[in-house]
Design a protein that fits this description.
By secondary structure, the protein is mostly beta strands. The chain has 2 domains: 103 residues, no CATH class; 275 residues, Kelch-type beta propeller (Neuraminidase, 6 Propeller). It has 2 helices and 33 strands. The chain has a 5-stranded antiparallel sheet. A 4-stranded antiparallel sheet has the order 3-28-25-24, with no helix packed on it. It is globular, with a radius of gyration of 21 Å. The N terminus is likely disordered.
Length: 409
């Protein structure tokens, strides 16, 4: 609910209200993704073309890692449409999985057995315990602070259904209950504490199987099949929906097997719809969400790609009874966060920074993403070069947002 007074828009949030509002918005956005108002837009190219790479998001920036025969780390800032180079990986990484836990990214499974950890706060690397067995083209996701790796293949192209769990606290791998379906080239994503493993190749054909792993009970359930069987796709989460993007729909012969298809899954209703197709096919890419935009980066089609495309999902459909409603205009916001124990934190943010925070909060509330959020304070810096604060999700009781227009006089 908006309460407007003296040019300010005041919104009062708590976890119940946010959940209700998110549900309403998700239903609206889900309907909008199937109409022509949602379209893909090209952005500045990634410095190095790459496929079978890794990715992560920290503080509104997209990190890309490695790729076949590559060890580069590059970061993309959507707010400025620019790229920056970070410290390189200790060795080349490809055909594995990258999983975020807190402020760190873990790289598991590849054509080496070693595992890696990247610390986004220090821009540094550590080598971690190797997986129990060699595999690549696996999928992985985090739940409850642990990393779960699913399936994969070996040099003999034997499809696997084994599942292993990695504990970042102990640096130990443990075997878990195997998937019902053998497969490699699948993709995995966490929703409400459960991990959805979708698509892949079962050793004979592409598959559209959707299986859900519950880490608490170490058990599996089967859900509605994805409409288009494919491997080497990506999954991303927006508005309580899972977007399955691109991939290979048949054996890649002269690179003709990749697809531009986008399909959207609703975990609450166990149903699929078709989304806006990409401008051209690709597979073995990475996909991330920042704000109200899905970003697809790199991949393969005829050759390795460095192109970046984005799908905006923040549009709203005008009210037919009032096609030109007066909308409040704001370009900044004062975010006030109420912390357990009586603490109150205030941050003066741009609207994009506010949207990034709310997107993080919604994702974490749905069971995925970092446990904490980083604010870089550009005000009241005093003698310090940089002032950084971290807010822990589990400590947030509620927050207020007061939007304003900084250009108004």
């Amino acid at each position: 609910m908006y309460i407007t007074y003296k040019g300010l828009i005041s919104l009062k949030f708590n976890k119940f209200i946010i959940g209700l509002v998110a549900l309403i918005l998700a239903v609206t956005l889900f309907a909008e993704t199937t109409n022509a108002s949602s379209s893909w837009v090209s952005k500045v190219n990634k410095p190095q073309a790459a496929f079978d790479l890794g990715s992560a998001v920290f503080n509104g920036k997209i990190y890309t890692f490695g790729g076949v025969n590559k060890s580069a780390v590059e970061t993309y800032d959507p707010s400025s449409d620019t790229w920056e180079t970070k410290s390189t990986m200790p060795y080349q990484f490809a055909r594995g999985a990258s999983v975020v836990v807190g402020s760190k990214v873990y790289f598991v499974g590849n054509q080496l057995t070693r595992s890696l950890m990247y610390d986004s706060l220090t821009d540094s690397w550590q080598i971690k315990a190797s997986m129990p067995s060699y595999r690549f083209w696996l999928s992985a996701a985090s739940a409850g602070g642990k990393i779960y790796a699913f399936g994969g293949t070996t040099d003999t192209r034997d499809s696997l259904n084994s599942v292993v769990m990695y504990d970042p606290e102990t640096d130990i791998w443990v075997s878990k209950n195997a998937m019902p379906t053998v497969r490699f080239g699948s993709s995995a994503i966490t929703y409400k504490g459960k991990i959805y493993v979708i698509g892949g190749h079962n050793g004979a054909n592409k598959t559209n199987v959707v299986e859900v792993y519950d880490p608490v009970t170490d058990s599996w359930t089967t859900k509605a099949n994805m409409p288009t069987p494919r491997s080497h796709l990506t999954l991303t989460f927006f508005g309580n929906k899972i977007y399955a993007i691109g991939g290979a729909t048949r054996e890649v012969n002269n690179n003709s097997g990749f697809t531009d298809v986008v399909e959207i899954y609703d975990p609450e209703t166990d149903t699929w719809v078709t989304g806006p197709a990409m401008p051209s096919p690709r597979g073995q890419h990475v996909t991330e969400v920042v704000g109200n935009n899905i970003y697809v980066i790199g991949g393969f089609l005829n050759t390795e790609l460095n192109s970046v495309i984005t799908l905006g999902l923040g549009e709203t459909t005008p009210d037919p009874g009032n096609p030109n409603p007066e909308q409040p205009v704001a370009d900044r916001a004062l975010l006030t966060i109420y912390i357990s124990g009586g603490q109150i934190k205030e941050y003066d943010l741009t609207i994009n920074e506010l949207n990034d925070f709310i997107a993080w909060y919604d994702s974490k509330d749905a069971g995925s993403g970092s446990a904490k959020y980083k604010f870089t304070k550009t005000w009241n810096k005093g003698p310090f070069t940089v002032r950084t604060e971290y807010v822990i999700f589990d400590k947030i009781l509620s927050f207020d947002v007061d939007e304003y227009n900084a250009t108004e006089k």
